[in-house]
Design brief:
The structure is a single chain. The protein is α+β, with helices and mostly antiparallel strands. It has one domain: Outer membrane protein (Lipocalin), CATH 2.40.128. The chain is built from five helices and 14 strands. The chain has a twelve-stranded antiparallel barrel. The protein has a two-stranded antiparallel sheet with strand order 10-13. Strand 6 and strand 7 form a beta hairpin. The radius of gyration is 20 Å and the shape is globular. The N terminus is likely disordered.
């Protein structure tokens, strides 16, 4: 536990040191319990992320990367260059949280603790994101510790079992790149946002195409409530409210969170080559400095196994909650 706490402390210190002069803080929580309190905690069970934003320094690496990107692909006039520093943790669970052994036809228990640095290029109708994540899996991810204390000390329910067979330790390095484009349909009240992106690294390799239809007040920008890994977290993106509906399709090359080596067990589950999802969401901005975003996401199975083929497992629904504040 001391090693795990030291790892977390190091990530926090790195985040704080990098984010001097930050202007915006955004915190997001994804959890399957948001879709209905059932004490189930399965598969993509929880994700916590904290983002800190600051304007890119004119001579800094973020600005240079943004300028190089704009040199290859022209950026919109007046596009803003921003550095985003983040820390996060994601928990993956079996279908039965009280099962002490690993179910070989289910996805394994796993945790991912990471810090990241990202370059954002944003304008009224376009967002570009390039992000580097570095983190760890296994006990040092603190997944077991966080979930056990949350269940036992806060929710007052029995903690999940099965952590003795979680994903083994692995240093993870992930590179994500994404571009979002906004197309206004009816003035500032209705638009469509499209997204294309990909992730390549030691843990995952996948590509994504997505779209969202939005209705709202003075729509601008592309930020909206989505799964934590897809949400840019930006704040100044329109008027007082908006609602959205959309879908996404992922092509998956590899996913070590599903087929990586475990402690004392072997899994027969393999990544599903195609994963589809649909989402509904809303944004509320009570003041120009605050945003509250919520969404529900329905996702097809992320893994294949005999149990999936027999229909034992069904698609998952989870919710997202994001709060952002700007203190400029």
């Amino acid at each position: 536990m001391s090693t795990a706490r030291a790892a977390l402390g190091g990530l926090l210190l790195a985040l704080a040191a990098a984010g001097v002069g930050a202007q915006t803080l955004s915190v997001q929580v994804d959890n399957d319990e948001f879709a209905g309190f059932n004490r189930h905690d399965r598969w993509y069970s929880q994700s916590l992320r904290a983002h800190r934003f600051q304007p890119a320094k004119a001579d800094g690496p973020v600005a240079r990367m943004a300028d190089a990107w704009c040199g290859l692909q022209a950026c919109d006039a007046g596009a803003v260059r921003t550095a985003r520093w983040s820390i996060g943790q994601t928990l993956f669970m079996q279908n039965q949280r009280r099962l002490p052994a690993h179910d070989p036809d289910d996805r394994p228990m796993a945790g991912w603790l990471f810090a990241s640095a990202a370059t954002l290029i944003e304008s009224r109708d376009q967002t570009r994101l390039a992000e580097l994540q570095v983190g760890v899996t296994g006990p040092a991810s603190l997944a077991e510790w966080v979930q056990t204390h949350w269940h036992r000390d806060v929710l007052r329910v029995e903690p999940a079992l099965g952590w003795d067979h979680q994903l083994r330790p692995r240093l993870g390095v992930q590179w994500q790149i994404a571009q979002e484009q906004r197309w206004p349909l009816f003035g500032q009240q209705v638009d469509v946002v499209g997204r294309a992106g990909g992730t390549v690294g030691t843990l995952q390799g996948q590509a994504l195409l997505a779209f969202s239809l939005r209705l709202g007040d003075r729509l601008s920008g592309t930020a909206m409530p989505l799964e934590a890994s897809a949400a840019t977290g930006r704040l100044d993106t329109g008027g007082r409210w908006s609602v959205q509906a959309g879908g996404a399709m992922r092509a998956v090359g590899w996913d070590r969170f599903i087929d990586g080596p475990l402690y004392g067990a072997v899994s027969r589950a393999r990544p599903a080559p195609w994963v589809a999802e649909a989402h509904l969401g809303a944004t509320l901005a009570p003041t120009p400095a605050w945003r509250l975003r919520v969404a529900l996401v329905r996702r097809t199975m992320e893994f294949d196994s005999e149990a999936v083929a027999r229909g034992r497992f069904k698609p998952q629904t989870f919710g997202t909650l994001q709060a952002s504040v700007d203190w400029r």
